[in-house]
Request: fold
Amino acid sequence: MKKLALTSAMLFIIYLLPAQIIHIPNDFSTIQHGIDEANPGDTVLVEPGAYVENINFLGKDITVASKYISTQDTSYISTTIIDGNQVARVVTFENNESLAALLCGFTITNGFDSISGGGGIKCDNSSPTLQHLKVSNNSMENENWLDWSLGGGIKLGNANPCIENVVISNNIARGYIAVGGGICSWNSDPTLKNVTISDNKCISSALGSSLHGAGFYCNGGNPVLIDAVISNNKIEGSYNSSSSGGCGLTCVSDLLLINSTITGNSYSDNTHGGVIYYGANSHASIINTIVWNNDPDTIRLVGDEWPTLDLDVSYSNIHGGENSILSYGPNITINWLEGNIDYDPIFTGTGGHPYQLSHLSPCVNTGTPDTTGLNIPELDLAGNPRFYGGRIEMGAYENQDVSVSVLEQANNSGRFKLSITPNPVNNIANIGFTLSEKTTVLVSLFNQTGRHIKNIYTGETEKGRHEINWNSNDLPGGIYFIKLQTTGEFATEKIVIQ
Reply:
């Protein structure tokens, strides 16, 4: 009893000690030595360089950070590297670390695991905060046909971490059962904000392998993804296509997906597609999200005799529309709610953020008008204001320039025979146009400064002449522009509202 009292008193004294900064390599040569010496609340501050080691937070609620934390200079993320040397996992949290345990401002690379998962980072029975990291070129490999390879980049097990401003790329899960090439979440409730999950792979180790979620795999729990890009992840090798799925995202749990972009994910043999969701008495919500150009399917729902599976989709751009959501099995409910569209999002396709939206995109200012309770970050993945120009955008990026240029106004009005009558209008306007072939059409409204106001009409439209009756009563008087857009072409006409 005395020993227990003494131990409690010592812990109390430790928590009362003022927080200190331990400098690496000035105070100690390795990051792990700094962690060993740290007390709760301390900071282990790491100078730029490559540190070949495998670190464990040892249950301590401390900060381990590069100089990014004090300077906000992103170059420190790339130049402060923890290298696992392919001998073991790079970073381990497994002793009930809380959100007060912070890892910030590093490149986490060259990690390897073959037992419990997470080549780059493992969070088991812990809930740390991971911020401003690059987790790349790590692997989880287990070729035993009875075992699972869980999380090439990051593995979460019974964990509730906060993961923000993290890039998870070029990681691999390899095995007979390989899931979560980028990240695997098992019975966990993670919140991921401003996260990029790209170019990760699940690779089979033998004929008949079962592979899932090359980008993100979740099984149990309640993951939340906000402002996430899941792109160009791939499942490849000799696998069982009937028991593999979701090259971008596979989920066997509840899921909340907000303002995210899922695109370019694929299979080596073109089976299944970008998102697969399995029934487990679970519910998924997709809000303000773009799911586009995943090969070959968009969303696939798989139920069985007992569990129920509910999917709500609202204010999202889904490639192929509602009909592209494939369902297999009973007890599946698809709630196709308001605000959804099926139209080429028109990504810029350039620079470090190729999935930013062009000012021509139909996803601009077409997200939900009420973002209450969605906990959307103030900045998008490119560091731009998340709320700009009225309504929020669909997808992970907020367009910063949606103006209609003078050049765009002098275009194909004659080709489409675009007309507006009467003009000026004080109530109902008739918008007419002619198509030379069947195509998808978007008709939208811009104000005099070129700011997108609303979409008036979108849909697959037959060849020939068409007329839309549009009520302008909800708008103040002034000069506006009606824009008609088809694939690769557009036309604009001025309209005066009295």
Remarks:
- Helices lie at 2-16, 31-37, 68-71, 75-79, 406-409, 413-416.
